[in-house]
Amino acid sequence: MGRWSGTLKVPLFPGSRSCYRVAASLCISTSSQKPIVPSMNAIFFNGDRVRGTGNPVVEKLSNLETIAEIIVSKLSENCNIWVIEASKFNGPFAVYKDFIPSVNQWGEPKSYDPTGDSASTSTISLLSSCLKEVKNTLSSINEEPCGSEAIGSCFSQPKTLLFGFSKGGTVLNQLVTELAFSESKPNIVSSQHETDIIPTSKESLLNSITEIHYVDVGLNTSGAYITDKDVIERLSKGVSERASGIRFVLHGTPRQWRDSMRVWIREEKDTMVNLLDVESRKSGGKLGLCERFYFRDKLANMQMHFEVIEHMDVS
Q1: How crowded is residue 15: how many other Cβ atoms within 10 Å of its Cβ?
Q2: Is residue 191 part of a domain?
Q3: Do you know which Pfam families this protein is assigned to (predicted)?
Q4: What residues does 162 pair with on adjacent strands?
Q5: Within a domain: residue 194?
Q6: Which CATH number belongs to the domain containing residue 174 in this structure?
Q7: Euclidean distance between CA atoms 200 and 181, whole angstroms
Q8: Which domain holds residue 231?
Q9: How far apart are CA 109 and CA 89, in angstroms?
Q10: Which residues neighbour 4 within 8 Å (Cβ) at sequence distance 6 or greater?
């Protein structure tokens, strides 16, 4: 098995004026040079732009392809990585308006509303555009039509792992809200075929999520974490009826969790942890929770905010 890696610029929908930069690192067949079905898709939503800092660590870890390489090294070679950057920026501020319709001009959420399933629908469409572009690229190299292949004969639907870094955590909150209000279908049989490398519907995406990683998320206003009790309770009920569970991992640094000017970040995090902890004990092991604090003995700074991408423990 080999890999194809690169940065794509693709529309959200065919003909759409909204284009996204996405760094992709995908499994491909060594012999045919075609994409193959992975064991998992890891989707990483990036945050605001930080440029011109003069800090080589921050500059390196702001690079989408570098992030993709790091996530591959933490998971396995048998996974696909998609690192997504917002299509719109207001100065340095990422605005995920296609994923969260109720955001202000700085990309800060006014609310998280499952109506319309904006985040899951946009994720499916964007991954589809990306995969099509990768196949076109490989076809031009191989000078023959590029389909896809399954791995061996023991195919199962790839798992989905979600990562939200900094402002990217807002997309996770929207996806969690949509998952909480989605119809529970514990006995559903996947409609995917062996050639489906990515989830092909919002239902298959939501049903395939097994891990949700909040990576040093934070905002200049409220909304960095889910604090709605109803959302967490609905999520827990749905997860308890699924074949597989979901694990939440909250990764943080003093940059966010000890910010005396934005104390609500820590308060929201603690609220979400408490809600998840209560529901975890009710779920029979289906809803998992892990909290990891990095650089706890250091003073808060911008570099550690990015270094957590390298240091985070996803085991």
Answers
A1: 6
A2: no
A3: C2orf69 (PF10561)
A4: 43, 212
A5: no
A6: 3.40.50
A7: 19
A8: 2-184+200-311
A9: 14
A10: 24, 25, 26, 28, 35, 134, 137, 138
State the DSSP string of 241-281.
Answer: TSSS-EEEEEEE-HHHHT-TT-HHHHHHHHHHHHHHHHHHH
- Alpha-helical segments (H) within the chain: 56-60, 64-74, 118-142, 169-181, 202-208, 229-240, 254-257, 263-282, 302-311
Q: Are 205 and 191 in contact (CB under 8 A)?
A: no
Are 170 and 314 in contact by the 8 Å Cβ rule? The answer is no
Domains in the chain, number: 1
Q: Is 193 within a domain?
A: no
Q: Are 308 and 266 in contact (CB under 8 A)?
A: no
* Residue 189, domain member (yes or no): no
Query: How many contiguous H segments (helices) and E segments (strands) does the chain have?
Result: 9, 10
pTM: 0.93
Q: Which amino acid is located at 102 in the chain?
A: S
Choose among 226, 128, 249, 110: nearest CA to 179.
226
pLDDT tens track for 92-107? 999 999 999 999 999 9
Q: What is the pLDDT of residues 45-91, one digit of tens each?
A: 999 998 888 999 999 999 999 999 999 999 988 999 999 999 999 99
